[in-house]
Amino acid sequence: MSKKDQKKTTEAEIENETSVQEAEMAAEAEVEVEESAEQEAAQEEWKAKYDQEHDSFLRLAAEYDNYRKRSLKEKDSSYTHGKADTLAKILPVYDNLERAMNQPTEDAAFKKGVEMTMQGLVKILNDLGVEIFGEAGETFDPNLHNAVMHTESEDLGENVIAQVFQKGFRTGDKVIRFAMVQVAN
């Protein structure tokens, strides 16, 4: 073979080799594009799963927080309701002691004993946070008082309590018993 033929053969081999390399590089690029597309798809799938799990976790945390708050509220209200129910059962004793104190008696020791018992009961009620309300001369409040009678009086203003038949009791915002009163004008 002549040098010229060898040169042409070498150039052809080089061209052939270059085109093979280009074809291989193109194939590799295609594989890389496919792999990157697969990786992107896998990342999107993973991101969707992650977002779903994260959302689920946040919802669970919010549900637990709401449950905890609701449980505390129910616990506090059950204590208040239980205390109010117990106090409502004790109120007839208060009423009887109040009637006994208003009865005339010759026995000073008996009267003193009833007064001391009443003072002890009032102290216990105050210690429990119970407020006693409903005095003659106060302004009538339908949220606290139960008007059972009405009277016309020039001495008293409008919506003023003229007479109290039963005192009212409340603890905090909860009314245990409404005061039974007579309202003027």
3D architecture notes:
With 185 residues, the protein is α+β, with helices and mostly antiparallel strands. It has a domain at 1-91. Helix content is 65%, strand content 17%. The protein is built from 2 helices and 6 strands. The strands form 2 sheets. It has a 3-stranded antiparallel sheet with strand order 1-4-5. A 3-stranded mixed sheet has the order 2-6-3, with no helix packed on it. A hairpin with a 2-residue loop joins strand 4 (168-171) and strand 5. Helix 1 (3-102) packs antiparallel against helix 2 (108-127). The longest helix has 100 residues, at 3-102. The chain is rod-shaped, with a radius of gyration of 46 Å. The termini are far apart. 8% of the residues are buried.
Topology (SSEs and partners):
Elements: H1 3-102, H2 108-127, E1 130-133, E2 145-151, E3 160-166, E4 168-171, E5 174-177, E6 179-184
Key descriptive features of the protein:
185 residues; alpha+beta; three-stranded antiparallel β-sheet; three-stranded mixed β-sheet; 2 helices; rod-shaped
Q: Biggest sheet, in brief?
A: 3 strands, antiparallel
The portion of residues forming beta strands comes to 15-25%
* Overall mean confidence score, pLDDT: 88
Give the tally of β-strands: 6
Helix fraction bin: 55-70%
Oligomer: single chain
CA distance, first residue to last residue: 138 Å
Q: Which regions are unreliable across 5 or more consecutive residues at pLDDT < 50?
A: none
Q: Tell me the series of helices and strands, N- to C-terminal.
A: HHEEEEEE
Summarize the structure.
This protein is α+β, with helices and mostly antiparallel strands.
